[in-house]
Amino acid sequence: MRWLIDAQLPMRLAAHLRQAGEETLHTLEMPLGNRTPDNAIKQLSLLQEYIVVTKDSDFVDNLLLHGNVYKLLLVSTGNITNDDLIELFRVHLQAMSEALSESRFVELTRAGLVIHW
Predict the structure, then answer these.
(1) Helix H segments across 1-117?
(2) CATH number of the domain residue 39 falls in
(3) How many domains does the chain have?
C-alpha cells in the first residue's frame, strides 16, 4: 500500500510506516511541505493511488461528494500523543491494510477501526 500522510500528523508516523515496509510520503517531503494544498494531495492520491491519511474531515466530504480521493484513512482519535498514535498504527496496520484493500473509506479511532465503505 502507498500512504500519503497529511500535515496534521507527525513525520514520525511516516517513519514508522516505512520501518514496517510500507511506501509512505509525508506532506513535509513534498515541494510545498505542509503548505501543500488539499487539491494537490487529492490529485496525487488519484494519480499514484496513495491512501490519504488525515485528521481533516474535508477529505471525507471530498470523497463522498466528488470521489476525488483514491482512498481515505481518517484518524479520529482526538488529542493523542505521538507515541499513542504510532502504537495504534502498529496494532492496527494489518487490519487497516486489509480493510483498505476492499474499501475506500476507513476510520481509525482510539477503540479501533470503522469501515465505512
Answers:
(1) 11-19, 38-48, 58-66, 82-102
(2) 3.40.50
(3) 1
Positive/negative CA dihedral, 41, 42, 44, 50: positive
pTM, entire model:
0.95
User: Which among 96, 90, 94 has a CA at the least distance from the CA of 108?
Assistant: 96
Distance CA 29, CA 12 (A): 13
Q: CB under 8 Å to 61, separation ≥6 — which residues?
A: none
Domain range enclosing 92: 2-115
Question: Which pLDDT tens digit goes with each residue over 15-45?
Answer: 999 999 999 999 999 999 999 999 999 999 9
pLDDT tens-place string over residues 49-99: 999 999 999 999 888 888 889 999 999 999 999 999 999 999 999 999 999
The β-bridge partners of 72 are 52, 105
Q: Which three cell numbers stand for residue 100?
A: 483498505
